[in-house]
């Protein structure tokens, strides 16, 4: 991962969109020690991949950013400002010569609750970075372990303060789960609820093929509404797709599994808890072709 | 809350303790947009209150910082560096004229996993700040609601990647729980596990008096080992104190409840889920007298 560019945003709302976007060196510190983003993980974010010079699925990402902000009772993001800044960043990283061979650019955009002392406007920025082109992992697949997320499947309804379903900066548990996967000789994680329902990955949405249908768990279970999974479902109009509860056992019964995310698209699961899984390379290719072709 | 001073720490380990402590203006941004502290809440912290010019219970805080770092698989903190920096900050904020009337100084110290791009040393800082003197709340007591923490009481053993028991920067759920308390007309929260065991507050340790004994929940339940609660138990040698599981119903049965934290000491609960509770002002005063008298 390489940082390519950074825009600090003025979220006070007093300046025009153009005057609110401030390019800075990505190595320049822009967050205060008193910012709630770094003190409490108190903020929200999105990451959009850049293809054809544009941030893909930007409207879906902006909608989800606003949803996450709502769940955290943060001010509603100024949509036009974020849209402009992310698009500008995507254009800037798409200039020939910016990316090295084997890299793919993405734009991460972050809004925190702002300074704990000043209690003024939120803090915001847009980071352009180069990640690994996912072509290889889409073909090779990924090794996954199933880990307990600890919460019941219904805590989003019973206990909204647990912030399930919000894409927050408080991702330490996701990082720890990925370290646990590494320890077990795997690359990634599928979380299940404390009461045995399949949820999502720490950075991806699950699609399982069961009885000829593509199934993803419902957002009511506190999983993030997947922008990439949604576009896969939209694009496969000839197949049967649906949102439904999956039990832990359904993972074993499924004849194919995918983890979907903005930066990697649809990645097939080749190993689950150490057991080899079949991959449908033809359908994976079709999914990623439709994802990569998206214009916006 | 007012920021009083800020030291940025060089945690590369290559410099001497003195050369690793860099005073900066607290308003100067010191965290990069690519730091894992702000991107993932991936870091640990402690807060020590300053009395008699010294950070109280510093050894306990340093031990707990190292414990949290271990749970997150962060590098072990360089104890002598953190000790020196926190002590120096405590001295600096204890100079006459720094604090206003009704303020009490505390030192917060933070270590993140460092930069996501560079993957070098952790990022660290020490912040001196002025909070509200707790004398009033110790007398008036606090209004508390009981909220579900979502996890079973034993996840620290079954699912260590959930990081229960670590004092991390990923505190968005704690903040959301405190907002829920406000919404319900209260000031603070006592978390219970999904299976009905009493845990702790989002920023405090619980002590309940039951059948003449002072009881606090065990750290095996994923609660933070309370430095303040431990000193209260140590100081009340003539009373019966113990660590034991408490059920939700025990909160109703208890004839007194306290929330203990570094910055406020022992604060009695005056209302629980809207119902008035008796407070033992004499014992509260005794607890805080012994806490405030600690020399280090």
UniProtKB/TrEMBL annotation, chains A, B:
Pfam families: Aminotran_4. The lineage of its organism: Bacteria, Bacillati, Actinomycetota, Actinomycetes, Micrococcales. The keyword Lyase applies. Keywords: Lyase. GO terms for molecular function: lyase activity. This is Aminodeoxychorismate lyase. The keyword Lyase applies. It comes from the Bacteria. Belongs to the class-IV pyridoxal-phosphate-dependent aminotransferase family.
């Amino acid at each position: 991962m390489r940082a390519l560019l950074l825009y600090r945003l003025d979220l006070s709302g007093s300046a025009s969109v153009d005057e609110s976007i401030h390019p800075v060196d990505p190595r320049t510190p822009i967050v205060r020690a008193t910012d709630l983003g770094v003190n409490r993980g108190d903020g929200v974010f999105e990451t959009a991949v850049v293809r054809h010079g544009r941030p893909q699925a930007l409207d879906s990402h902006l909608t989800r950013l606003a949803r996450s902000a709502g769940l955290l009772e943060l001010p509603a993001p100024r949509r036009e400002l974020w849209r402009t800044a992310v698009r500008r960043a995507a254009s800037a990283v798409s200039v020939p010569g910016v990316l090295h061979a084997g890299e793919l650019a993405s734009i991460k955009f972050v809004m925190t609750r702002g300074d704990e002392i000043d209690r003024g406007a939120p803090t915001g920025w847009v980071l352009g970075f180069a990640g690994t082109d996912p072509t290889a992992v889409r073909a090779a697949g990924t090794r996954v372990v199933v880990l307990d997320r600890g919460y019941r499947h219904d805590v989003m309804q019973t206990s909204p303060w647990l912030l399930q379903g919000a894409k927050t900066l408080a991702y330490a548990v996701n990082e720890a789960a990925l370290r646990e996967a590494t320890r077990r000789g795997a690359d990634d994680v599928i979380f299940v609820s404390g009461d045995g329902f399949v949820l999502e990955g720490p950075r991806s949405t699950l699609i399982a093929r069961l009885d000829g249908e593509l199934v993803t768990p419902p957002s009511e279970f506190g999983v993030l509404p997947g922008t990439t999974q949604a576009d896969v479902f939209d694009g496969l109009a000839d197949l049967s797709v649906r949102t439904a509860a999956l039990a832990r056992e359904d993972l074993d019964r499924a004849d194919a599994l995918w983890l979907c995310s903005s930066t990697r698209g649809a990645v097939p699961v080749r190993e689950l808890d150490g057991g080899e899984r079949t991959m449908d390379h033809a359908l994976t290719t079709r999914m990623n072709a439709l994802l990569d072709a998206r214009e916006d």
